[in-house]
C-alpha cells in the first residue's frame, strides 16, 4: 500500500511540473506570436514611410531633404508609431534603441551594391524602423523585451520618367529608326496604337518603358527593361500641363513689340531677327518675327525668357545654324507661334552652341516655373521642331524640351546634367551633317530648387 501511495505522489509531482512546462511553452508561444504580429505591423509602417518619402523625391534638390524625411516620419505616426527618433544619412543601421526611424536617401545601410543594387542611388529611399517590445511570459526567463527591426526601399515608378510621347492614337508615336537611346529615367508612350512604340534598328535602354498600346520593331534590343505594354493612361496625361499658366505668365507678352523698333537688343521689330555675321548681344523680351542665327554670327544671350511669335506666314520660332556661335546661360524660350518651330540645322564650318535653362543661380529674375525649361512651344503652335545636341557638332543643350502639340525630331549625345522631352510625337535616330546623333537622357536635377518639374504620382516599393 505504501508503495502505491508513493507512486501516486510522484504522478502528482510529474503532472504539476508538466503543467508548468506546458504553460511556459504556451506563454513563449504567445510571446512569439505577438512579436510576429508586431513584426508585420512594423514592416507595414516601414513600407508606408518609404513610399511617402519616395513621393517627395521630385521636390527635393538635396539628399534627405526635409520634405522627404517629414513625410516618412509622418507615415510612421499615421500607422500608430508615435514619437520616433529620426536619424538620416547613416550607414549605422543596427543596435538601435527605442522607437527609431532611419531615413536614407540614397540607401546606405547595406554598405555595397553587391548587397543592395540601389546602394547610393539617389532615386531610392531607404527606411529602417526599430521598435522595442516588452515580453510577458518570457520575462520570467530573464528576457524582458525584444527589438523588432524592419527595412524597406521605395522609388518613383520607373525611377523617374524623363520622356513622354503624348499622342493618344498615333502609330509610331515614339519611333527610333536607326541608332541608340540610353536613358537614366523612364519612358512613357501614351498612344493606344498596336505600333505605338516603333524601334526599327538599334538599342533602346531605359529602366522603365511603359506603353499604353503595343511595341514593335525589326532589329531592336532592350538591354535594361523590356517595354511594359497595355499600361493605363497616365494621370495626368501631360505631366507638365500644370506648369503652362505659370510659364505663360512668367514670359514676356507675345504682342509686346512695336513696329520698326531699334536698339542694341533688336527688340520691337515685327519682322524676323536675322543674324548672319558679326558679334551680337540679345536680351530677354519679345521677338515678334522669331530669331534666326546662322553662318559666322556670334551671339550672346543674356539670362531670361525669350518670347518668339510669328510674323506673316513664313517666319517665327527659333532657328540656329550650328555654324554660328551662340551662348546662353539661364535662358528659356517661349515659342508662342502660331507658326514656327525650334530648329537646329547643321553646318560643317564650325561654330558652337551652348544653351542652359534657368535655375535659381543663373537667372535670379526668372519666374520659378521656368527653372529647368529650355523650350516651351504653346499649344496653338503645331509646327514640327528639330532639337539636337551633339559632341561632333559642339552643340550642348541643358534643359527640358516641352512641345505638347507638336512633333519633335530629337537627339542629344552631349553629356549634360539633365534633359527631358515631352512632346506629342517623337522621332529619334538622326543623321546630321553625316554624323549619327544618338540620344541620352540624364536626370540630375540638383541645380533646380524644386527638383524635376515632372512630378510622379507616388512611390513604389522595390525592396
Question: Topology, please?
Answer:
Elements: H1 2-55, H2 66-78, E1 85-88, E2 100-104, E3 124-134, E4 145-155, E5 161-165, E6 174-183, E7 186-189, E8 197-205, E9 209-211, E10 215-221, E11 228-229, H3 244-249, E12 273-275, E13 279-282, E14 285-287, E15 291-293, E16 298-301, E17 304-309, E18 318-321, E19 325-329, E20 331-337, E21 342-345, E22 352-356, E23 373-377, E24 385-389, E25 395-412, E26 419-428, E27 430-432, E28 435-437, E29 439-441, E30 460-461
Parallel strand pairs: 1-2, 5-7, 5-26, 6-8, 6-26, 6-29, 7-9, 8-10, 9-11, 12-15, 13-16, 14-17, 15-18, 16-19, 17-20, 18-21, 19-22, 20-23, 22-25, 23-25, 24-25, 25-26
Antiparallel strand pairs: 2-3, 3-4, 4-30, 27-28
Helix pairs in contact: 1-2
Structural features, described:
The protein is α/β, with parallel strands linked by helices and 463 residues long. The protein folds into two domains: 2-155, no CATH class; 238-461. 16% of the residues lie in helices and 36% in strands. The strands form four sheets. The protein has a 19-stranded parallel β-sheet that branches. The protein has a five-stranded mixed β-sheet with strand order 1-2-3-4-30, covered by helices on one side. It has a four-stranded parallel β-sheet with strand order 12-15-18-21, with no helix packed on it. Helix 1 packs antiparallel against helix 2. The relative contact order is 0.11.
Amino acid at each position: 500500500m505504501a508503495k502505491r501511495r508513493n507512486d501516486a505522489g510522484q504522478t502528482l509531482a510529474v503532472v504539476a511540473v508538466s503543467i508548468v512546462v506546458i504553460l511556459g511553452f504556451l506563454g513563449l508561444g504567445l510571446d512569439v506570436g505577438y512579436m510576429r504580429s508586431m513584426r508585420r505591423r512594423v514592416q507595414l509602417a516601414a513600407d508606408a514611410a518609404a513610399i511617402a518619402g519616395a513621393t517627395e523625391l521630385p521636390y527635393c534638390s538635396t539628399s534627405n531633404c526635409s520634405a522627404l524625411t517629414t513625410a516618412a516620419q509622418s507615415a510612421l505616426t499615421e500607422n500608430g508609431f508615435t514619437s520616433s527618433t529620426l536619424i538620416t544619412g547613416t550607414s549605422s543601421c543596427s543596435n538601435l534603441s527605442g522607437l527609431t526611424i532611419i531615413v536614407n536617401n540614397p540607401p546606405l545601410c547595406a554598405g555595397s551594391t553587391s548587397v543592395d543594387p540601389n546602394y547610393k542611388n539617389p532615386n531610392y529611399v531607404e527606411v529602417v524602423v526599430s521598435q522595442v517590445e516588452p515580453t510577458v511570459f518570457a520575462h520570467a526567463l530573464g528576457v524582458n523585451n525584444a527589438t523588432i527591426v524592419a527595412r524597406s526601399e521605395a522609388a518613383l515608378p520607373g525611377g523617374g520618367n524623363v520622356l513622354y510621347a503624348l499622342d493618344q492614337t498615333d502609330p509610331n508615336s515614339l519611333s527610333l529608326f536607326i541608332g541608340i537611346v540610353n536613358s537614366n529615367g523612364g519612358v512613357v508612350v501614351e498612344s493606344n496604337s498596336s505600333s505605338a512604340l516603333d524601334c526599327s534598328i538599334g538599342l533602346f535602354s531605359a529602366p522603365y518603358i511603359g506603353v499604353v498600346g503595343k511595341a514593335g520593331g525589326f532589329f531592336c534590343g532592350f538591354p535594361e527593361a523590356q517595354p511594359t505594354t497595355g499600361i493605363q493612361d497616365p494621370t495626368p496625361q501631360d505631366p507638365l500641363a500644370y506648369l503652362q499658366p505659370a510659364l505663360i505668365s512668367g514670359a514676356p507678352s507675345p504682342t509686346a513689340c512695336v513696329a520698326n523698333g531699334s536698339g542694341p537688343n533688336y527688340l520691337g521689330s515685327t519682322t524676323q531677327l536675322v543674324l548672319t555675321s558679326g558679334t551680337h548681344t540679345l536680351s530677354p523680351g519679345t521677338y515678334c518675327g522669331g530669331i534666326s542665327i546662322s553662318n559666322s554670327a556670334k551671339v550672346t544671350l543674356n539670362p531670361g525668357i525669350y518670347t518668339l511669335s510669328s510674323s506673316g506666314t513664313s517666319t517665327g520660332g527659333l532657328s540656329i545654324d550650328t555654324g554660328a556661335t551662340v551662348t546662353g546661360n539661364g535662358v528659356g524660350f517661349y515659342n508662342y507661334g502660331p507658326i514656327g518651330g525650334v530648329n537646329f540645322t547643321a553646318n560643317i564650318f564650325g561654330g558652337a552652341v551652348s544653351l542652359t535653362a534657368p535655375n535659381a543661380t543663373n537667372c535670379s529674375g526668372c519666374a520659378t516655373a521656368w527653372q529647368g525649361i529650355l523650350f516651351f512651344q504653346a499649344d496653338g503652335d503645331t509646327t514640327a521642331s528639330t532639337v539636337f545636341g551633339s559632341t561632333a557638332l559642339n552643340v550642348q543643350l541643358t534643359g527640358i524640351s516641352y512641345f505638347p502639340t507638336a512633333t519633335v525630331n530629337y537627339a542629344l549625345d552631349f553629356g549634360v546634367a539633365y534633359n527631358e522631352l515631352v512632346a506629342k510625337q517623337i522621332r529619334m535616330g538622326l543623321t546630321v551633317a553625316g554624323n549619327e546623333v544618338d540620344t541620352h537622357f540624364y536626370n540630375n536635377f540638383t541645380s533646380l530648387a524644386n527638383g524635376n518639374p515632372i512630378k510622379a504620382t507616388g512611390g513604389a516599393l522595390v525592396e
